[in-house]
Amino acid sequence: MKNFLLSIIKPSGLWARILVFATLAGIVAAGFTGHFELLRQYLDTDSLTYQVGDVRISAYTVLRGILVLALVFWTAAILSDLIEKRLAHLSRMRKTTRVLVTKVFQIALYILSGLVALDLIGLDLTTLTVFGGALGIGLGFGLQKVASNFVSGLILLFERSVEEDDLIELPDGTSGYVRRSSARFILIETFDGKEVLVPNEDFITNRVTNWTLSSSKARVEVPVGVAYGSDLEKVHALMLEAAREHPRCLEDPEPVCFLRTFGDSSINFLLYFWVGNIVDGRWGPQSEVMFAIWRKFRENGIEIPFPQRDLHIRSGLPGREEPLREPGGTGEPDEASGSDEASDA
Fold first, then answer.
1. Which CATH architecture describes the domain 218-299?
2. Domain span(s) for CATH 3.30.70.100 in the chain
3. DSSP codes of every residue in 243-258
4. What pLDDT, in 10s, does the model give residues 93-133?
5. 3-state DSSP: the chain helix, strand, coil percent, rounded to 5?
């Protein structure tokens, strides 16, 4: 039912063409046969007329206005649908550019259609100045966020900083792929399948990480610690070898390995290598390279240590007083005390 009502308000495709054609044919036929004059005589009477100042509104005026608005906006919907389909076939134009052109065209088309419809109805357009002022006040208060998100959406489309299928990360930790952009929000599909609706304004006012804005390459980090006494040159060579053997590791930029710190329990290295497309994931290559490093270290007798601590226990410190004994306690001190009492007796 909802889809049927929506198709009546904003028809598209074959349904729209048939509906508009049938309505136009009916109006033309009614005009030739003189039915409009008869209809006006029945509906444009004083009993069916409402007077507001100098404005006279009759049932005939209302019916004519409904027909004009329906025809004008149905025609605008058909043109909008045709333009959108034409732009969809332009493979040279980027997807976001097509969305931007479509939205701008739709906005301009519906504004023009509204003005034409009001003029055909016979409404004086100068009376819209009061309505425009009220609309401005409404935008300034109640619709401020809506207007801000709409303008932010147009800015994003112009700048092309966030496009569909981009991999982005928000300041609150939300990460995922851009699946759809609209006039009010951007739909993000996270890695666990959730769909998050983020207002367009957040992409303008906050710091957003776009992993695929100008390049889809990404760097993978693998920190590794080895035991003291290991052959450091051998460790360095094995780590680079493990990275280069991975099929997704890029040759340019080539992988690099650095000796970072001499830690408390290990000598710490850091391996960097690049993958060509971050959309395919980073954790998989990182895990596989770490497995390869583990196998190579085991084959070459290189140990990855766990944290170690040396404890020195000291006893019999000079000047240490004997701890106090509780009265009635048991043990050697009590036995010694008993023997002393026996000797005194």
1. 2-Layer Sandwich (3.30)
2. 218-299
3. HHTSTTB-SSSPPEEE
4. 666 666 667 777 777 777 777 777 766 666 665 656 666 66
5. 55, 15, 30
